[in-house]
Every structure is written in C-alpha cells, then in structure tokens.
Request: fold
Amino acid sequence: SQQGEEDPQALSIQEGENATMNCSYKTSINNLQWYRQNSGRGLVHLILIRSNEREKHSGRLRVTLDTSKKSSSLLITASRAADTASYFCATDWTGANSKLTFGKGITLSVRP
Amino acid sequence: ETGVTQTPRHLVMGMTNKKSLKCEQHLGHNAMYWYKQSAKKPLELMFVYNFKEQTENNSVPSRFSPECPNSSHLFLHLHTLQPEDSALYLCASSQTSGISYEQYFGPGTRLTVT
Reply:
C-alpha cells in the first residue's frame, strides 16, 4: 500500500499537554499534508509540507518531514478540548497522477 | 465554513432507489473530487474532475455515476446500491488536480442503504 500510516491509532491527553502524532509512508512524495476531521464532518486542511522542506509551523501546529526516514510528525502544543478530532496524513506521492492518499487517521481526545 | 456545501446531509435509501448527491464549491476551484469514507478504513478516492473533465475513476462500480456540469458543481448519481455502500460520502475541491494543492472538503453526506 502506498498510503501513509499514522501512529498511534488513538491518543488521549490532558488539556494543556502537547500531542505528537506520526505518519510513515513508503514511496517518494511530492508533498505531505495533514488534515483534521471532527466527528461526522468533512476534513479540514491543516498544513502542507513539501518534500524539500523539513519543518513548518502554523499557530500551535508544528509539522516536520524526514524524507530519509519517510516519516512526518504533527505536534499540537498546549492542546485544548476543541482539538479533539481525528487527524489524517495524506501523501501526494510521485507517480500517483496527482492523487492524495490518506491514512486511517489518529483519534485524539483532549480531556478538559 | 469551508466554502464547499453538500446536500443532502443524510440519506436513507433502499437498494432499488435512485438518488443523487450534490456538491457545490464557492472557492473558484477547477478540480473536484468524490471520496468514500467507511468506518476503520482509509479515505477512498472515487472520482476526480479537472476543468469539468473526469481524470480519475478509481475502479468505482457503475452503480455510482458522477456528473460535473461545470467547475462549481458535482453530482453523484446512485442506483441499485448495496448495503456495503453505506458510508460518508465527501466532496472536495482544489485549485486544480495538480500536485501540491490542498483540498477543501464539504461536510459530507451520510448514506445508509437498507
């Protein structure tokens, strides 16, 4: 399978703590994207990181990409109850004819 | 609000019914997508349209028939569905279907086939 695989499958933390989620993939990519999905809703784009970038920030979000290890991480700092959602990584891998391939997602629960 | 709307939000249909899902994007994008999301499975890409032309059909059964009359509207026509087709159907759009563009999703249609 070419899809990204997120790790862990589920994560439960206390409000105020940091949450780290990981994504691994198997083939060379053009870019990697992270999305959030609240229960029963559509996905919301969070960050896109290109294959020649190593780190990007957006507010409380920090994404890293290590192409040598074929992995990415999403860090949410100072988590809030509203961060409770499923998080997906999606890879736009070379040879995919410009398709995004999504993983199964990570369920994050932030306890108030 | 993401600028992508989907109707209906919920749909229950029998296996012999014919129904349609509608998606509209207000973002000026040129590419639109249909995805299927089933429990405990990765998001499955179904169809891609770029400038109204279908560029991807991911081996979807013919009981699903897409239609893209213009870059802002996308339909998914459903007929003689099976219970395993019950899922959340998500529409998305992006600037084009080329690489490196983020996708904007609608809220989805929760489909139940009885």
Notes: Chain A touches chain B through 25 residues (CB under 8 Å). The two ends of chain A are 37 Å apart (CA to CA). The CA atoms of residues 35 and 46 of chain A lie 5 Å apart. The mean pLDDT of chain A is 91.
